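Q&A FORM
Asked by: J.P.
Topic: structure of Phenylalanine--tRNA ligase beta subunit

PROVIDED:
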Amino acid sequence: MRVPLSWLRDFVEMSDEATTDDVFASLVSVGFEEEEALGFDVTGPVVVGQVVSFDVEPQKNGKNIRWCQVDVGAANGGVRGIICGAQNFHPGDKVVVSLPGAVLPGPFPISARKTYGHTSDGMIASAKELGLGDDHDGIIRLVEWGLDPEVGTDAIALLGLDGEAVDVNVTPDRGYALSIRGMAREYALATGASFTDPAARPATEVAAGSGFALAIDDQRPIRGNHGVKQFVVRTVNGVDASRPTPPWMRSRLQLAGVRSLGLLIDITNYVMIELGNPIHGYDADRLSGGITVRRADKGEKLTTLDGAERTLSDEDLLITDESGPIGLAGVMGGASTELNDETANVVIEAAAFESVSIARTARRHKLPSEASKRFERGVDPLIAHAAAQRVVDLMVELAGGTAGSVGAELEYAFQGETIELPEGFAGGLVGVEYDAVLQQEILEKIGCTVTRIDGGFSVVTPSWRPDLTDKWTLVEEIARVDGLDKVPSILPTAPAGRGYTREQSSRRRVADALAATGLVETIAFPFVSEAANTLYGSASGEKVAMVRLANALDQTAPFLRRSLVPGLVATAHRNLARGTTDLSLFEMGSVFLPEEGMTYGTDVNYARAQRPTDAQLAEIHASIPPQPRHVAMLFAGDIASKQPGRAAEAAGLDAALDAVRTVGEAAGITIEVEQTKRAALHPGRAGKLVAAGVEIGYVGELHPDVSKEADLFGRVTVAELDLDRLIALAGERVTVAHLSTYTAATQDVSLVVGQDVAAAEVRAALVEGAGELLESTRLVDDYRGQGLEDGQKSLTFALRFRAADRTLTAAEATEAKLAGVAVAEERFGAHIRD
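REPLIED BY: S.T.
REPLY: Here is the structure written out as C-alpha cells.
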C-alpha cells in the first residue's frame, strides 16, 4: 500500500517535519513491513514559464522543431531560448520549464546545450517527464490543468512534485489497511496522535419517493453466503467530464500508484484509496433501466473495460441492466457503460461484496484489479454510503455537477463478532503482563466495543476488522499495539534426558555411514506410474495394491510409490543425460504399502483445538496406509576411476553388497544374502536380504531390458531395505567387544558343496561349529569348473581365530576349524577340497 504523506496528514496529526523514515518506523512498530520510500525525484529549478513566441524550423530528418522564446520571470533570467519538439502549444500558453540545474526522474539532469543550431537554455516538460503520468504526446499546458499561475512560480510546489509516500506491505488479513483511512488509524495507534475518521463526514439523504430501480437476485450463493452485503446507488447530473483533474489529486494518485484517467474516473479511484471502498461509475445515459445484481448464466458474455470479451461462469456475480451484463461485480466494469469525456450524468455504485465470490471470479478470469484486491480481503460493509457521498461531493466540486435526488440502497444489518477475552489470557499467551485498563484501552482504540464482565471482557469487533474472530486474534492486537518489541525473547529450556529416539539415531547412523563411504544422498518425488509400482513394488511383477492421488500434479505419475528404486532410476537417468556417468546414489524415505481391499482416507471427527484421544489417534493411523521408511542404493559406471598404474573398477554387485553391509553395521545387525528372483532384476544376479531370519530387502543387477527402458547403459545394480524393520530387528542391544591383545591365527578352508547350497548357509555352519575362538569369517572364492564334479562348487573361506587370554597354537585353530567343517558336513554334505 502506497501512502502519500500529505494525504495521511488529512486524517491524523503529523508534524510537517516528519520524514518517510519516521512514518516507516511508526508503521513498522504496529506490524507492517517497510518496502520503499517514494517521490517524484524532481529537484529545482522547475518554474512556470510563458511562451512568448516560437519559430518552426524543419529539419533534414523530416522533423519540425520549435525554437521558442519563453519568459520564466525576471528572477529566473527573464526570456530564455528553448528548443521544443512538441506541437500542442501556442504563444501565450503557460508551461512548465525545467531550467539548467534541475534534475528530472531518471535521473535526467537539465543543462544548457547546443542542438539544432541553437543553445537550448532549459526544457519545456511533459507530464511523463515530470513523473505525473504516461502522457508524452505533448507538453503540459497549465490552462488544461485548470491553472493560471504567475510566471516564475515554483512549479514543484504548484504541481505537488514535492510530495512523498511510503510503501508498506499489507498482509492479506488486514484488508482495512489498503486505504488512507486504515493507514491513518494505524499511524494514530502507533504514535498516539489524534485520528479523524474520513467516513464520518456528513451525508446527504436521498429524497424520499424518488428511488432508483435496484434489485438483488442472487439465487446461487457461494458457501451459503450471498454475493452482496450492501449496495448504494447515487446520481450526479450535469458533470463536465472534460475538466482537468486538479494537480493535488493527480499527484496524490500518482504517488499511490494509480495513473490519471480523466477527472470522473480519477475521483472514483481517489475515493477507493481514501476510504478503501472500491467505487464504480456508470454513464447514466447509456444505462437501460435500473440495476440488478445477479449470478451469471453459464456461457453468458461480457466485454470488460480492458476490451476483452469474457465468457462467464455461473458463479460470477454480475451488475446488469435491462440490456444484460454491464459489470463483473467487484472486479471490473463493462465497456458498454463506461465513463468518458462525453459523459454528462453519472450513476455511482458503492457496494460491499462477499470476499470469496470476488476472489474466485478474479482468479477464474485472471483479472486482478485494485477493486478485487480490496474486496477479497474484506471491505468495511458499513462504509458504502459514506464512499458514495464522497464521490458525489467531489464530482459536484470538481466536475461542476449537481447531486441527483434519486438513489437506492440495500441496507446491511451488521453485527460484529462477540468474543469473550479472559483478563489473564493475553499475558499468559504472550508472556507480557497486560493490566485490564491497558487491554481495554487498546481494544477500544482499534474500534472494538468493550464491556467488563466477571473475569474478563466481552468484546464486539468493528465492521472494518473481519480478521478479529477469536480471543487469540484479540491478543495479537493487544501485543501489536502495545509494542512487539516488549515481547521477551526467551528460549525454552530443553528437558534433561531428551534427544533423538533410538530409531532416529539409527536412521542418522545409516545415512552418515553411506555418505561416508562415498554415496550421494538424493531426494525424489514420491509419485510414480502404475507400471513402475508394479515392476519395482512387487517381487513377481504382478499388479499390487497402490494408493492413487485424488488430484495428481502429473497424470503420468498419479500413484504413491511402493519402492524407492524408481526415484533413483529417474535420478540416474537425469545425471547420465547430463554427462555424469559414475553414480553411487542412495535415498531414505517412506514408501506406501496399502493392504489389498482396504479403504483409506476416511475422515476422523475430533475437536481440532485439542489433542486427539488414543482411540482417535488409532483411528487416524488406520485411515492411512502403512508407510515404512526404506533405504535404497543404486550404482552405475565406475566405482573407482582409472588412475596411473590402475585400471578403472566398474561398480557391480560387490559395490551394492558392500553398501548393504554398511547399512547392517550402522544399524547393529548382520545381513545375509540368499539367491532369489525378482521381476526387475537380472536372473541369477539377484539376492534377498535377510536379518535375524527375516527378509528385509533385496539386492541385484537391473535386468538389461529394464535398464534399456530407463535409458541407462552398462550394468546398474540396486539394493533396497526396509529400514524400519531392520532397526526393529536390531533391537536395543549394544554389544561391546573385548579387544584382545594376543596374536591372531589365520587359516583358510575350501569346502565342496552342491551348487544349490547358499554360501551364507555354509558360512553360518562354520561359525556355529568353530565356536567363540572364531573372530571373523570371509568368503574369498567361489570356484566351479575342472576338478569338481558336475553340480558342485568350491567355497573358500578366510578364517581368523583369536583368544582373549592367550596366544592360540596352530593345533587349537585347526581343531576349531575342523569343528566348523563337521557342522557343514552334517548339514550339507560338505567336505574339504583336496
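FOLLOW-UP: The domain at 502-593+628-730 is CATH 3.30.930.10 (BirA Bifunctional Protein; domain 2).
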